[in-house]
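Quick one: structure for this chain?
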Amino acid sequence: MWALVEDNAITKIINNPKAMVIGDVRHSKNIFSFRWTNEEREAIGIYEIVFDNSNKKDESYYINTNQSFDYADGTVTASYGTATPKLLEDRNEVDDAGEPLLDDNGNQIVTKGLKSQKKEIIKQQASGLLAPTDWYVIKATDVAEYSVPSAVATFRTNVRTKSNEMETAIDNASDVDALAALYVYNDDDPRTRPLGEFPTLEI
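Got it. Here's what it folds into:
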């Protein structure tokens, strides 16, 4: 990306190479190619944008601002403002008068926070892990002489235990950063993270 700077002020942001009229001169889009050096472009007011992402945060957990553009000391910089954490806990929605907002069925409208969203994913993952062994349980229910293999029974118990532990860890997160930290894998052991992992079935 580039910016057109005129009289020390940014007058246009250029996302893609294109022909331009600058002053009284029409330039082809070749001004953005390797045939032109940055110095040559800057001489006619076109500056390559330098991106400052120091304030940009993980969009899974934060709402980032739009980028703002600034020209100073011969450099055009694109930067973000302060990011806003996404909703952590569930929120009951109300109208301007503070009255509960209801859906068509008369139920309170609730915006799910990150904790509820993450816990729902954990539940889905646990369900997906248990589903392939459900038939063992069904057979044990239907056939009196059959019992679930101990390895399968242990696995299913461990999946539920780990699911509950993960949900508790999510519930205990004090803020968005603490929640995000649960999912960060250890640099020394890329297979581990504070949230832990589900067990695997070994038969």
